[in-house]
Amino acid sequence: xxxxxxxxxxxxxxxxxxxxxxxxxxxxxxxxxxxxxxxxxxxxxxxxxxxxxxxxxxxxxxxxxxxxxxxxxxxxxxxxxxxxxxxxxxxxxxxxxxxxxxxxxxxxxxxxxxxxxxxxxxxxxxxxxxxxxxxxxxxxxxxxxxxxxxxxxxxxxxxxxxxxxxxxxxxxxxxxxxxxxxxxxxxxxxxxxxxxxxxxxxxxxxxxxxxxxxxxxxxxxxxxxxxxxxxxxxxxxxxxxxxxxxxxxxxxxxxxxxxxxxxxxxxxxxxxxxxxxxxxxxxxxxxxxx
Length: 290
Ligand SMILES: Nc1ncnc2c1ncn2[C@@H]1O[C@H](COP(=O)(O)OP(=O)(O)O)[C@@H](O)[C@H]1O
Ligand SMILES: [Mg+2]
Known about the structure:
four-stranded antiparallel β-sheet, Rossmann fold, binds adenosine-5'-diphosphate
C-alpha cells in the first residue's frame, strides 16, 4: 500500500467509483464535451455555499461565505496566508464539517455528506484522493483507477475485449497528461511535476464532473508550473475546476473567475483583470492597511 493511502478508506472509495460509472460514463462525457463548446457562457451553478462558517474553538477561520461556482469555469480561490483558503477547501471537499451554513452541489444539499458520497456524484478532490501507488508503474496506476471505476460491472468483465479497452483507455489518459513515454516507469521514479500529471490522470480515470485542486503547483519550478497550467486547462474542457492557488501567474493565465478571501470572508470576486485592480485586494496583499 502506498503511504498516501493511510488517511482514507480505500474500500469506501472503491465502491463509490463503481457508482460513478453506472451513473455517468461515456454518454455523460460526450454530453460534457458538447457543453464545453458553450464554455464561459453557461450560467448553470455547479456548487454553491450559503453562509458557510467554520470556527475552531471560537476562532472563525471561514465566516459567512456565500459563493457560487459556474459550470465550465476554472475558478481560483486566492488570498493572503491565513485567509482561510485551506479551511474553505476542506469544507467544500467534506474533509471538515461546517459550524454553520450550507453547501449545494447541482442543487442538492450536500452539507452533511461524506467525501466518498460526493465522489459518487462526480466531485473529486485531486492529489489527496487520487492516491498513487509508488511501486506500481505509471500505466498500472491509471489502469487501477479505471478498474476502481469499473469494479463490479459484470458485463464489462465478461467481455473478452475488456482488457484491451482498459489498456487503450489507460494509454489515452496518459497521452492526455503528456505521460505517454513514462508508462513503464514506477510512479516513484517520476519527477515531481510528472507525479502531479499522473495524479491528474488517475483523477480523470474517475470521469469527474467537478475537480477540486489544492495548490496544484505548490513546490514546483517554472517548467513544471507551465506544464501543470496547460494540463489544468486541458482537463477543464467540459468540466468545472475549483482550485486554491498561490501562484499569480497560474491564476491570471487560466482562471475564468477568482474569489479573494481575507480573514475568512470574501473580499472580492470576478475575473482576474477586475479583481487585480481592486484597491482592497492590492491592499490585502501588500498589507498597507496594517
Ligand atoms: N484545525 C485548526 N485549528 C485551529 N485553527 C485553525 C485550524 N485550521 C486552520 N486554523 C486557523 O484558521 C486560519 C485560516 O487557516 P487556513 O485555512 O489554513 O488559511 P490559508 O490556507 O488561507 O493560509 C488560520 O489563522 C489558521 O491558524
Ligand atoms: Mg492554505
